[in-house]
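Appendix B, record 7
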Amino acid sequence: MASKVAVSKVIDDLEKIINTWGENPDFSLPDGTTRQQLEQLRSEIISDNEDIEVQRTKLTGMIDRRDDKASRGNDLAVRARSGIKFTYGADSAQYKQAGGTPLSERKPRVRRSSSM
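C-alpha cells (predicted):
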C-alpha cells in the first residue's frame, strides 16, 4: 500500500507541473512519461476523489440511519429489561436471561473513608 499523501496537494502539484511543462515543451522525464499521461493521471485522481466523496456521503447517511436504529433498539432493550425486572423480580432467572445483573450477584458498594 502506498504511503498516505494529501490528495489535494498532489492534484495542485500536478496542475503546476502540467502548466509549467506546457510552457516548456522541450522538457521531458527520463522514464518517458509524457505531459498527456500526467494530465490523464490528474483527471483520474480527481474523478476517483469525486467518487469517494459521493460514497462517503452515502456512507455517512447509512451510519446515521444505523445509529438512530441502534439508539431506538437500545431504548427498547432497556425498557423491556425493566419490564422483565418489574414482572419477574430483580433476582429472577428471567431478568438474568434478559441481560440484567440479579441483586444476588451485585457487589456491595464500598464506602471510601475520607483521608483528611
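Remarks on this record: Residues 35-88 form the longest helix (54 residues). The chain has a mean pLDDT of 93.
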